[in-house]
Amino acid sequence: MKHLFCFGYGYTAQALTARLDRSEWKVSGTNRASFETLQHLPADVTHVLSSVPPGPDGDPVVNKFATDLARGFTWVGYLSTTGVYGDHAGAEVDENTPLQPVSDRGARRVAAEKQWAHFNTHIFRLPGIYGPGRSQLDALREGTAKRIIKPGQLFSRIHVDDIAGVLHASLNTPNPSRAYNVADDEPCPPQDVVTYAAKLLGVAPPPEIDFEHANLSPMARSFYGESKRVSNARMKQELGYKLKYPNYRDGLEAILKSERAQ
Predict the structure, then answer these.
(1) What distance in Å separates the CA atoms of residue 118 and residue 176, rounded to the nearest whole number?
(2) Which of 182, 173, 67, 66 is nearest to 123 (CA)?
């Protein structure tokens, strides 16, 4: 029996678990409270996935469990971010692009990747994540969606089911110490996603707001300090993964269809 242990058993880890044959896989993991009380990884763990973000003192998983991680596993995966590349003014980045973060958040991720590298870890660099319960459809219903206009701004994104699909493909074809960008095929201005979600719901989109006058939190504003196209070529070529939702339109349509079928 293979045993996948997830540091941070949240949205993405649960989507991955849904793909696993439970007659072959045992899955366990931590939430915030259980991470604090856990002292050692279970002895029968064969695969490890971490989605725990780093803090100012580095990666909390590596800091606490370095001895356990050093014993070696069939597969180790770490969910990082495309923020490690920094700002490229809309140009394309791939896994060979130098890591030049422009935010503290991105710099922490670079440092965390280096910590995880000691354990032959697969690194998965993620852009904005969306999926059921976490999309612009929900933001529109909640009244929190904004169409912020910043000329030239591009964001990449990925549906949670496609993250799970990529992780599953990697579990089946391990390539230790390899980094993969996990993004869909269509980087685009963020306001386009809001507009399309509003069209699907049959509601008027929120008014356009100039970025300079937008009332954004410091963290939200920092995201707009980076614009790039994230290449997913390595993910497709090496893992043989075909995106289920190659663009935000396909993803949003599938979410709404699933909701209406319930």
Answers:
(1) 11
(2) 182
Tokens standing for residue 172: 């089946």
CA dihedral 192, 188, 209, 152 (to 10 degrees): -140
pLDDT, averaged per 10 consecutive residues of the chain (262 residues), comes to 98 98 97 94 97 97 98 97 97 98 95 98 98 98 96 96 98 97 97 98 97 87 93 98 98 97 88
What are the φ and ψ backbone dihedral angles of 113, each rounded to 5 degrees? -60, -40
pLDDT score for 216: 86
Whole-number pLDDT of residue 217? 87
C-alpha to C-alpha distances, 116 to 15, 22, 33, 120, 212, nearest whole angstrom:
23, 27, 22, 7, 38
Closest CA to 120 of 85, 69, 52, 82: 69
Bridge partners of residue 76, in order along the sequence: 48
- Give the burial class of 130: count Cβ atoms within 10 A of its Cβ; 0-12 exposed, 13-18 middle, 19 or more buried: buried
CA–CA dist 132, 4 (Å, integer): 24
Find the DSSP H helices in 21-130. Answer: 32-37, 60-69, 104-116
Q: How far is CA 70 from CA 3, 85, 120, in A?
A: 17, 28, 10
